[in-house]
Amino acid sequence: MKKTIEEHAARFDEHSGSYDEDQDSAEYRACASLVVEHAAPEPDDTVLDLGTGTGAIALALAGDATRVVGRDISDGMMDEARSKATEAGIENVAFGEGSFREPGVDESVDVVVSNFAMHHLDDGEKHEAIEAIAALGPRKFVLGDVMFFGEPDPDEPFYSPDVDDPATVGTLADALTDAGFSLTAVERVHDQVGVLVAERADGSAAADE
Ligand SMILES: C[S@@+](CC[C@H](N)C(=O)[O-])C[C@H]1O[C@@H](n2cnc3c(N)ncnc32)[C@H](O)[C@@H]1O
């Protein structure tokens, strides 16, 4: 059954304290590494991490960018992210409330990333989220997530139909190209996990057009 945004937030609040230690699968680590690798921000870039959670991607990219902005719907997850930033002495990261469809970002963004989060939206919502991301004008969007390369299989890891609503790679590719991106890389980590790299077709940020 489809969960509301409030139900997702409450679920992640509840598990925020143990979230990091629970992410022990090789596929999660591989997906996160590929997102960081493909994001490859320039030193003067601002990066937006949507569904930032406890900040795994945001904190990994902080040393490579001028500024990283993390957005999430779960205060509990972002409290963990803030503690980790403080502990590591990272000062160019800011975490705040925002959703995929309403990121609540009013600054210029060069690169958008997201890891293991967008699959909580249904396909129509993902389409709207990708349109909202394109409207922020990044030159690149790197999406690591649960996605189907073959037939969906709830008996295989990463897909629990009670809380997840992943899309096929084809549906995501269509949404990205509809929003004006070109798909420049597809990385299959598992039959139900992958990373898509989408770049502005003209190679420049929409805000510059
Ligand atoms: C599995 S965690 C992934 C966290 C992090 N990106 C990582 O790689 O570890 C999913 C995160 O997505 C967030 N989330 C779920 N639905 C969301 C939405 N509609 N907008 C923004 N964040 C959302 C959850 O609160 C949670 O922190």
From TrEMBL:
Listed Basic and acidic residues bias regions: 1-18
Descriptive protein name: Protein-L-isoaspartate O-methyltransferase
UniProt entry keywords in alphabetical sequence: Methyltransferase, Transferase
GO MF, any single term: methyltransferase activity
Region (Disordered): 1-24
Ranges for domain Methyltransferase: 47-135
Classification via Gene3D superfamilies: Vaccinia Virus protein VP39
CDD domains for the chain: AdoMet_MTases
Pfam families xref list: Methyltransf_25
Alphabetical list of SUPFAM superfamilies matching this protein: S-adenosyl-L-methionine-dependent methyltransferases
Biological processes per GO annotation: methylation
Signal peptide start and end residues: none
UniProt source species: Halococcus morrhuae DSM 1307
